[in-house]
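Posted in: Structural Biology > Protein-Ligand Complexes

Title: Requesting predicted complex, 3,4-dihydroxyphenylalanine in pocket

I'd be grateful if someone could produce the 3D structure tokens for the following input. Sequence and ligand are given below.
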Amino acid sequence: MDIESLKKEILGFKVSSQEQLEEFRMKFISRKSVIGELFGKMKEVSNEERKAFGQKINELKDLAQDKFQELIRELENSSSSSSTSHKDLTLPSGFAPLGSSHPITAVRNEIIDIFSKIGFNVSSGPEIEDDWHNFTALNFPPNHPAREMQDTFFIEKDPDIALRTHTSSVQIRVMENEKPPIRTLSPGRVFRNEAISARAHCIFHQVEGLYVDKNVSFVDLKQTLYFFAKEMFGEKTKIRFRPSYFPFTEPSAEIDISCNICGGDGCNICKYTGWVEIAGSGMVDPNVLANCNIDPEEYTGFAFGMGIERIAMLKWQINDLRLFTENDIRFLEQFKSL
Ligand code: DAH
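-- Reply #1 --
Done. Output follows.
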């Protein structure tokens, strides 16, 4: 057997099917191949020639192995390229799965839309706040219980810095930077040191409303919130104001709407009263206006603040606040149409 002609045969071998590849393997790679036979012949070669002969057939073996790998690759490439060329380019493409807005985002946007119809713009402020914007400028007396540790997440090394406990801090930032008339809505995340339950969370969302101009009165506050309640929960929604206290408003009121989960009959969401609280509100305290260099003799204003989760729970009859942050796809998928 001539080694040189075997070399040529190996180098010139072409395959276009698995069968031909197998043919190559049988002929040059397997134990019974011609190369295997050549190794068998080593014994018959004279001592002087053995070394050179051994080297030659080892080279031949390496050549065959390299070629075999090359043929495998060639065959794979040709089969995959032939399958691509058979793809039907006229077929419609598959559907990419679409996500959806988180219900909190959807409600926030709806609230913004409703208030923008009556001239409110949108403003924002930082989630990490200083004492001035979160408390002092909002007229919290120095030892007010809301400043205490159980409610507020303070930064350990600096008692002046905290995670904002409400979006009322944005009122201050807007009034410090703008002159009336001001009509703004400030949605955002707020933080409180509370145990997590179906009705409370340490992270939630609020939207703050602020209207400051000449001659703004409590009547404007009432009509604005009544308009919002009807837009959000339907024409039949009733609204009531209960006297309350907030350091930054005087007078202050809590706003209830008729419970749209039980229709006013009583359920665990409305604590069997038929009414649910949706917001705190009031006339901006003159001290707060003065703290922001707005003359309380010239201007008056109203403010309100509501929890976005609460509005979403009422709107979709969701009875557990924790669902909003658990990211359970079975829950989130129900809001796909938003
Ligand atoms: N900041 C209050 C809270 O977090 C909500 C609030 C009440 C905001 C009355 C207001 C307001 O603007 O006038 O509970």
